[in-house]
Specification:
Structural class: alpha/beta
Number of helices: 19
Strand order of the largest sheet: 3-2-1-4-7-6-8-5
CATH superfamily of the largest domain: Spore Coat Polysaccharide Biosynthesis Protein SpsA, Chain A
Shape: globular
CATH architecture of the largest domain: Alpha-Beta Complex
CATH class of the largest domain: Alpha Beta
Distance between the termini: 57 Å
Strand content: 15-25%
Radius of gyration: 27 Å
Length: 509
Amino acid sequence: MSGTVLTTVVVPTVGRASLSRVLAAVRPRAGWSVADVVVVDDRPDDDGPDDDGDARPGLAVGDDVRVVRSYGRGPAGARNVGIRAARTPWVSFLDDDVEPELDWLAHLAADLAEAPPDVAGIQGRVVVPLTTERRPDDFARSTAGLATARWITADMTYRRAALLSAGGFDERFPRAYREDADLALRVQRNGARLVRGRRTVVHPVRAESDGISVRQQRGNADDRLMDALHGPQWRARADAPRGRISRHVAVTACAVAAGAGLLTRRRRVGTLALAAWAAGTTDLFLHRWLPGSRSAAETRRMAWTSAVIPVAATWHSAQGWWRHRRAAPWPEQRWLVLFDRDGTLVHDVPYNADPEKVDPVDGAAEALAVLRGGGAYVGVVTNQSGVGRGLLTHDEVDAVNARVDELLGPFDVWKVCPHAPDDGCDCRKPGPAMVRDACGELGVPEERCVVIGDIGADVDAARAAGATGILVPTAVTRPEEVTAAAFVRADLQSSVASVLAWMGQGEPR
């Protein structure tokens, strides 16, 4: 068997050299191919774009791979950008440091073909190879835990509809930690099932600095966010080990008590607390050191990090509890901003059939980036009466739209009315159908939708659908349209600023 697997492979990256191996593995093989491959470049702005403003230096991908940017938003935000770029029924996430096996594509095809309708996600199998020359060190054993972890995005495929229904990944998780478990719990809460598939990826153990185990304690803050969102029993549902946070807090308390006792000359209290701290630290040291190589370098590393880890874990846990103590379910405010195409996003070329004539309005790309960075969906609703008048073909309109998407996208939704004014359709603006359909496709209530356009039909369509319209006047805007509009802004930047303010306030004001 062979064919095209109807999934978009999304690979977030910060520019690791291993990315080339991932891309090589997902390219057509043995007659199988995927519908699309999207690399999400999550390097921050200070890495600088190349001269063309496209993929940044050092990110080597071929012409058959799309590159979109997420501007250093972290793994959750980068994957959300990938979801928005996808147009397939399934979305397959791979980390940029895994190695899919040779039969990965064929097994992915089988996984998706055999999935019943109530299965929303299928996890691949993860293999972590450990050296046989010596016993694995502490970090290698931690990495090996990925082989038994549930619903991790090292290799995880979801139905795109399930991702949209759940609101995507919660971007309050800033690291590659717990954001996948949180998403899985929300998808399952919606009544869907998650299962394991046949395909396999290898996750090598990367070389890390001595302090990696201390830096990993930042994940305790993410655990407190999980507590706030899913309650104290989330670990059982996510099959996540309890960890040693209670012991770390106790050991840290002993250290504080020892210092206080000695400073206040309460030597008995200080001595007992110091002994308890030493016992707790020794227990942690032995827990980490005995299964390892026990080399001199490993012993030194285990000794100093075992003294620091309890304090770091306690600090991050307390910080996370305070920051997330009132955390609301994700997404807190998911909005949709729909743009008119001609005269709003791109300069108006009447009945344009040539993609080369697409010219974005000044500031359009920056305004869209701000909205995406703020967590809003973005889409396009456009009247293309040239099709109904016989002046354009559907293919020509699609080609121009593809060029707009290439220059300014990815857009989460496109709605096009091809009818002439006299056809009597209900989709042509100022009718509400395109706005309502876009909201329905993304699961956004109309009251959280804003339509931005340059003529009265755009804001009238918004009003008819129960959404909010913003008029950005141009030379073709009539004075009476400006007078009738509830919200008028000078340009896209000020329009976007208003939308972001409304998102924070909960309603247009």
